[in-house]
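Progress note, sequence design subtask.
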């Protein structure tokens, strides 16, 4: 992970972009013509646990779709995470509200509870954003 855009925020050269309760929320790599996604939402604080490791769903009733430049995870009809790889930048869209967490993005910001992060640059750190 070198450059990740979440909402209007840039996380660059960090070991982990987002951590929830000490668990990295997601990581990815590009392997042989497809994106390999790991996605981990702990319960608690979420109402449902989801664990995906290198494109294998270990826990949670979710649908995973991957191709050469993207990966997405849905819970029913709700999109939880979407990664779009464009060159050296990955755009991440999140919505963890279906899991009971007020964590989501839109075109303006990254929202965590009642807080809003907008147009921040976070560089060269172990954990970009830590929640809980």
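Output:
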């Amino acid at each position: 992970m070198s450059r990740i855009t979440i909402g209007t925020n840039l996380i660059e050269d960090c070991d982990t972009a987002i951590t929830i309760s000490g668990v990295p929320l997601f990581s990815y790599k590009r392997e042989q013509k497809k994106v390999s996604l790991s996605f981990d939402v702990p319960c608690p604080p979420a109402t449902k646990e989801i664990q995906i490791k290198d494109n294998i769903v270990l826990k949670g009733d979710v649908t995973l779709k991957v191709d050469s430049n993207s990966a997405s995870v849905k819970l029913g009809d709700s999109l939880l995470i979407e990664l779009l790889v464009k060159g050296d930048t990955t755009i991440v869209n999140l919505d963890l509200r279906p899991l009971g967490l007020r964590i989501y993005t839109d075109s303006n910001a990254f929202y965590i509870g009642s807080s809003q992060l907008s147009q921040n640059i976070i560089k060269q750190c172990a954990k970009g954003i830590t929640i809980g």
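Residues 73 and 79 are 6 Å apart (CA to CA). Work on this subtask will continue into the next period as scheduled.
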